[in-house]
Amino acid sequence: MKRTDVVVVGGGQAGLAVSRVLSDRAFDHVVLERGRVGERWRSERWDSLRLLTPRWQARLPGWSYRGPDADGYMSRDELVAYLEAYARSFAAPVEGGVTVERVERDGAGYRVTTNREIWQAGSVVIATGHADRPAVPAFASRLPVDVAQVVPTRYRNPGALPEGGALVVGASATGVQLAAELHRSGRRVTLAVGRHLRLPRVYRGRDVMAWLDAAGVLDETAADVADLEAARRQTSPQLLGAPDRRTLDLGALRDLGVRLVGRVSDVRDGRVLLARDLRRNVAASEVRLERLLRRIDAYVERSGQSGVVPAPEAARPILVPSTPASLDLRAEGIRTVVWATGYRRSYPWLHVPVLDARGEIRHDGGVTPAPGLYVLGLQFLRRRKSSWIDGVGADAVEIVDHLARRIGRRAA
């Protein structure tokens, strides 16, 4: 059995961020990663993916982008290289190819059993992230067997899919990006739209993320929101990290020729049943968009930039088409359904009583009810940007602060 102060489960941005903070505080620790550093970015993301946030926003503890195009957007491969360089910069104690099989209490600490060896540690940080496993509705099993079903973690490019039309289910960032890419490949694409958050790529002359960062929106804490659970369920904004900084929303997709329909509610006898909620979902998104833009405008006014930056721009209304109540997949020529319906977390290896009825880890800002057990990288863990590369660092610092206080070690 090996012993250490802290075992970190996961070698993505969350695991590396907390490893850097632990290293800076001289905590003996190990990072256990099932594959390689940033494995999900390597093997569970599509070929053309770019981050939604500018390069300057890829900030991690003791690390930031230093290249020539800070306002551009990292590709998948660039991000992997960025994380690898980050790990090398402080000699992160990452052990790759290690599968965690069991985490359980062991006296005052924890026993972590892996496919290689057993670790004993006083504390464990679960840093496997928010985008763990694709959430596919149970009724997906009733789709015709000749219709291919794909989740974003298995999608690579249009050429890997069958010929014919495609139904993309879900209109968050992933859904709109894949709908646009499949349409450009020559397919007839239908997008089933549920709850979503519309944002312009550029507003008043700057990237919208720069405004939200400067105005403090992304740093809002759990105490700043009226409904934390609703905030944690918020979908990723409809953004595209394209070099031309174009906006990709429902209006842009409709202009391209993508058909918009309501949310998928069921599958019966080869037909996909659709809710008549497209107009309501679009209207709710417009309200949220207007609220965010007014917050940016208020910040521009407070900071004395009104006469420097362009005037406020009215968002183009989304024209909602009449939509059918169902789709006959064979008659429509739809050969592929892409389930861009979000993610769920799964911890079959966690044998500590901290999971709720949904299988999610119960926590208060990443501090679980089990002393010494922490979680990092979940959506709105402590801040609105907690699951982002730019947000996980501040959370990591505060979690290590708590860990240090628990064992009586003075903060560095």
Name the quaternary structure: single chain
Poorly predicted tracts of residues: none
User: What is the overall silhouette?
Assistant: globular
How many domains? The number is 2
Q: Outline the biggest β-sheet.
A: 7 strands, mixed
Number of strands: 19
Percent range of helical residues: 25-40%
What class would the helix/strand composition place it in?
alpha/beta
Instruction: Give me the number of helical elements.
Output: 10
Which H/E pattern describes the elements? Answer: EHEHHEEEEEEEHEEEHHHEEEHEHEEEH
Distance between the termini: 29 Å
Strand proportion, as a percent range, falls in: 15-25%
Estimate the mean pLDDT confidence: 96
Q: Write down the Rg.
A: 22 Å
Structure described in brief:
With 412 residues, this protein is of the alpha/beta class. Helix content is 26%, strand content 19%.
